[in-house]
Amino acid sequence: MRGVAYGILLALGIFMLIMPLSLPLFMTNAEFSVLNPRWNGCSSFGKLLYNESKPTPIVSPFDSFGLGSKEGALIIIGPDLGYSQGEILEIKAFLENGGTLVLMDDFGTGNEILEGLNLTVRFAKEPFLDIFYYKNENFPQLVKILDPALGKGVDKIVLNVPSSLLNTQGDIYTSKVTILGKNQREYPIMTELSYGNGRIILFSDPSVFINDMYKINEQFIRNFVEYINADRIYIDEAHHSNFNIYQQGYIRVKRVIDREKIFYIFLTVAVIALIIESGLALNLAEKIANLISKFIPKEEKKSIEDIVASLSKEGYDEKVLLKMIGEIETGKKLGGEK
Questions:
Q1: Are strands 144-145 and 122-123 parallel, antiparallel or unpaired?
Q2: Which region, left, alpha or beta, applies to residue 23 given φ > 0 means left and ψ of -120 to 50 means alpha?
Q3: Which UniProt keywords apply (predicted)?
Q4: How far apart (Å, rounded) are the C-alpha atoms in residues 228 and 190?
Q5: Taken in order 235, 241, 247, 249, is the CA torsion positive or negative?
Q6: pLDDT-based confidence at residue 273 (cuts at 50, 70, 90)
Q7: Exposed site from 124, 275, 306, 335, fewest CB < 10 Å?
Q8: Which contacts (CB < 8 Å, 24+ apart) does range 31-34 have?
Q9: What's CA 27's distance to the chain center, in Å?
Q10: Which residues of 179-212 are buried (b: 16+ CB within 10 A; e: fewer)?
Q11: Which CATH architecture has domain 22-253?
Q12: pLDDT tens-digit profile of 274-322?
C-alpha cells in the first residue's frame, strides 16, 4: 500500500508541474493603453516591452505608488489627465536617482510635467503640415533619423496627426518644408535630455506606438525599446481618463516539461519514502512529542491535609472537614466488607 501512496504522490507532483494554468485576462478601452488590444491601444507595444524587459503598469498616483524610490524607466504614453505637484516631485526624485522618463505625447498633459521639472522644451499645441506623407497629410513620414541606433533598418517613420517639439534640438526631424503655424522649417520629433542622474526621452507622437500603426513602424519601435535600455519598466496607466479595466476572459498557459524539476520531484519522493520506511519519521515524531511535553506544566498532587489546610484558610471549619473525611473513609471500609 505504501508503494501505491508513493506512486500517487509522485504522479501528483508531476501533474502539478505540467498542468496548464488559467490566468485572468484584463483589458481596457483606454486610448494608448498597453492593455487595449483595439486599433487605438498599445497592446502590441506592451507585448514587445514584456519580451524585452519587466513592465509594470501603474494604475495609482505616482506619490501613492512611491515612484521616486524605484529604478528603471517610466513610460508615459498619451496622458490626458493632469499631474499633481506630488506626482511631479516623484518624477523628479525618480530622475535624480538615475531613472529614465520616456514621455510620448502630442496634445495631452505632457507639458505639465515639463513645466513642473522647470524645462523649457514643450510639445507644440497644434499639428504641423508636411508635403511628405503616407496616406494623406494626417500621416506625415520622416526620414531624418540622426541616431544610428534608432535608424537601424528603418527607411521611414510614419506619424499620425503628430505634434512636434519646441525649444530643443533633436535626434529625429521633420522635413525642412514643414509648416507649423506661420513658420516653415524642420522640427524635432524626438530628443533626449539629461536630468539629475537620469535622462528624459521625449517623442511628440504617441500614435506611432498604437496597434494600428505598429506594423508600419515595427522596426523603429523595436529600436526605440532597445534605445530605452531598461530592465524594469513602469507604464503610466493612471493618467488615461477612460481607463476602465475589465476582465475579458482567461488565458490558458501550457507549461513545458522541465527535466530538472522532474528529477527533484523524484528525489523528494525518494527522501520521503526513506524517512518513513527507516523509522526516522516515527523517531522524530516521538522526540518532538517529548520536547513539547517538557513545556506543558504538570499538576502537582496534594495530600488531604494540604487540601484541608487550604480550605480552612478560606474560612471553612477544619474540624468539620476532618470529620467529613473520616466518615467518608469509614464508609469506604464498610463498603469493602460487604
A1: unpaired
A2: beta
A3: Membrane, Transmembrane, Transmembrane helix
A4: 13
A5: negative
A6: low
A7: 335
A8: 31/78, 31/210, 31/240, 31/242, 32/77, 32/78, 32/206, 32/209, 32/210, 32/240, 33/77, 33/237, 33/240, 33/243, 34/77, 34/235, 34/237
A9: 16
A10: ebeeeeebbbbbbbbebeebbbbbbbbbbbbbbe
A11: 3-Layer(aba) Sandwich (3.40)
A12: 556 566 656 767 777 777 766 666 555 567 777 767 767 777 677 766 7
Inter-axis angle of helices 2-18 and 259-277, nearest 10: 160
Among the listed ranges 40-54, 125-139, 248-262, which one has the minimum average pLDDT value?
Answer: 248-262
Distance from C-alpha of 12 to C-alpha of 8, rounded to nearest angstrom: 6
d(CA 123, CA 78): 12
Residue in 58, 335, 41 with CA at minimum distance from that of residue 206: 41
Helix (H) or strand (E) holding 323: helix 318-337
150-202 pLDDT, tens digit each:
999 999 999 999 999 999 999 999 999 999 999 999 999 999 999 999 999 99
User: Are the C-beta atoms of residues 209 and 228 closer than 8 Å to each other?
Assistant: no
Q: Which residues of 145-176 are buried (b: 16+ CB within 10 A; e: fewer)?
A: beeeebbeebeebbbbebbbbbebebbbbbbe
Pairing of strands 232-236, 54-58: parallel
- Which amino acid, residue 246? Y
Q: How does the average pLDDT of the chain come out, rounded?
A: 83
Residue with the larger pLDDT of the pair 79 and 27: 79
- What is the model's pLDDT at position 300? 57
C-beta separation of 198 from 154 below 8 A: no
Reduced to 3 states (helix: H, G, I; strand: E, B; else coil), residue 204 is coil
The one-character DSSP state at 254 is: P
Q: Residue type for 159, please?
A: L
Task: Give Cα 330 distance to the centre of its chain.
Answer: 81
All structural domains of the chain with their residue ranges: 1-19+256-298, 22-253, 304-337
User: According to the 3-state scheme, what is the secondary structure of 103-140?
Assistant: EECCCCCHHHHHHHCCCCCEECCCCCECCCECCCCCCE
Query: Cell triple for residue 106?
Result: 502630442
Confidence tier at 248 by pLDDT (50, 70, 90): very low
